């Protein structure tokens, strides 16, 4: 089972949600060979709830996942900023993710982000897996927190974007922290658009549909991380594409129709 632990369903958090763009993304994810992904959308993205409402309408529940017609399983999730600097990933049933997002409404702007400990207090009230996204990407400071706090995490994200930029440093520091904390290291592409899918994947021996089974497989180590030979090229190309599409939008163009050859957004 090819799995991506860190993905997004929108091009950028300040842009409006587009059903056509999201459909294109998940079609491309399947074409890239993924069987499942975590949709760790930014907690303060525009139309967070609209994104999940749409996905719910075009999928069928399969355990804790939402399964699309093309067979791709989407595990609901969220990427949340913390006051110390850094991003925390959460994965769980859609209802839990939506309720946590509502609870975070007063803390969605910079200067109001919750400290790590308070965020973990909130997340521990829900049946979710919690990990640190790209722990060593500047200006994040999560790895500097006390060990007793960090051990509340369930996993670390060996991030495809960081691997492509500096594989040796990213692997060395992330795996070292994982060993210190005694928690699994898994991988996510961190993509906001399709080019980056498949730059890295966590390949599980067994298929999973529930968060509890996902946790069991992670903790048992029944997986391997596969980095694409073209990862650096994919990440550079993805970055250029994202900037270009955002500029098209800023100039009043329809970036979705350019990608999908459709006139709807």
Structure summary:
This protein is of the alpha/beta class. Helices cover 38% and strands 22% of the residues.
Based on the model shown, name its key terms.
11-stranded mixed beta sheet, alpha/beta, 11 strands, 38% helix, 265 residues
Explain the overall architecture.
With 265 residues, this protein is α/β, with parallel strands linked by helices. The chain has one domain (2-260): Metal-dependent hydrolases (TIM Barrel). The protein is 38% helix and 22% strand. The protein is built from ten helices and eleven strands. Strands 1, 2, 3, 4, 5, 6, 7, 8, 9, 10 and 11 form an eleven-stranded mixed β-sheet that branches. A hairpin with a 2-residue loop joins strand 3 (59-62) and strand 4 (65-68). The chain is globular and about 50 Å long. The model has no long low-confidence stretch (mean pLDDT 95).
């Amino acid at each position: 089972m090819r799995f991506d632990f860190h993905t997004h369903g929108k091009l950028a958090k300040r842009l409006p949600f587009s059903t056509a763009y999201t459909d294109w993304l998940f079609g491309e994810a399947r074409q890239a060979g993924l069987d499942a992904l975590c949709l760790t959308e930014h907690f303060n993205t525009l139309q967070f709830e609209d994104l999940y409402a749409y996905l719910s309408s075009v999928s069928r529940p399969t355990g804790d996942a939402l399964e699309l017609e093309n067979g791709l399983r989407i595990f609901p999730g969220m990427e949340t900023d913390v006051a110390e600097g850094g991003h925390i990933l959460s994965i769980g049933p859609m209802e839990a993710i939506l309720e946590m997002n509502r609870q975070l409404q007063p803390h969605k702007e910079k200067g109001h982000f919750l400290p790590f400990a308070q965020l973990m207090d909130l997340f521990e009230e829900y049946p979710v897996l919690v990990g640190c996204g790209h722990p060593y990407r500047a200006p994040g400071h999560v790895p500097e927190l006390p060990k007793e706090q960090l051990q509340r995490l369930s996993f670390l994200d060996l991030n495809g974007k960081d691997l492509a930029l500096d594989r040796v440093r990213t692997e060395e520091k992330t795996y070292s922290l994982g060993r210190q904390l005694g928690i699994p290291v898994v991988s996510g592409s961190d993509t906001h658009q399709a080019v980056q899918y498949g730059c890295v994947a966590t390949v599980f021996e067994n298929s999973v549909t529930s968060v509890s089974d996902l946790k069991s497989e992670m903790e048992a180590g029944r997986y391997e991380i596969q980095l694409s030979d073209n990862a650096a090229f994919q990440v550079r190309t993805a970055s250029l594409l994202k900037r270009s599409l955002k500029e098209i939008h800023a100039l009043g163009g329809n970036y979705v129709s350019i990608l999908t050859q459709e006139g709807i957004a």
